[in-house]
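Team,

Forwarding the record for the chain on the shared tracking sheet. I've put the sequence and predicted structure together so nobody has to dig through attachments.
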Amino acid sequence: CFGESATGTFASCGTARGTPRPLLGATDTGLKESEGISASTCHPEWGAKRGVEGSPSALAAVDASRKEFKGSDAPFESGGLLVTVSVPEGEELARRTFNPRLGIVGGISIIGTSGIVRPMSEEALIASIEVEMRTIVAAGKRDLFVVPGNYGRDFACNRLGLRGDEAVQCSNYFGATLDAACVLGFERVLIVGHLGKMAKVAGGVMNTHSRVADCRLEALAAHAALVGASQTVIRQIMESTTTDAALEVLYANELAEAAMASLVTALAEKLNNRVAGRLQVEAVVFSNVHGVLGQTPGAQALMQYWRDEEE
């Protein structure tokens, strides 16, 4: 089975077929890609800077350590061995990864050392985000567009008219993404996120996975209280099951606009504290029902940049 990848983890049945090859020396081996194995479109001179092996050859997408055949020093009676690697579902599976955006097309990449697919660790997920960010830096760009996931990307594209296909998906790792942006030399970062994620960030939570922390309702209740919500309203917010439900409580009591303004002020403070003046970071908070709920002061200018056609 193949499928360990820095840009997506899944299992797929593949084949590696060995064929005696008299033309090779007695201890030589050859490797040939076939169906479902991706080709790299990255130029070899800057491929490494982008975090992927760069080569026009499809074999660049097969990790170097995978090209080493154990026991290759054992001679074959008829010569060397030519190994053909294929993954019948590789091209379809690749569409579910970041590979095309990294210049790896036509199939999955074959990497890993064990041949056993394991769930990606948190470190591996963060590393995959950084890989994508490095591809942007390598292209000479210093603006970064970040969304937590598909909700943010779809809203950015369909409701805000932004180039959402260029957004980096940070998942739950807002802090790690901002840290990497600072290290890599980005100058401006725009974040577009649903209230459910951004309420946590406004509360100072930079890893928004539910197993780490969850202050969504607490944050909304606190900012509602700051703008004059009654104890009854605060209790209703705290008893809500989702931020969308809590938002309806705010709208019903004509507190939504003021509470969102207060929350966005806190959000801007937390984001700027994280980057410590090393770059400009702006954010847009939305709900799928009510649209844009608030945005930090410089967000409009960055949104305009991401609306304009690339030069």
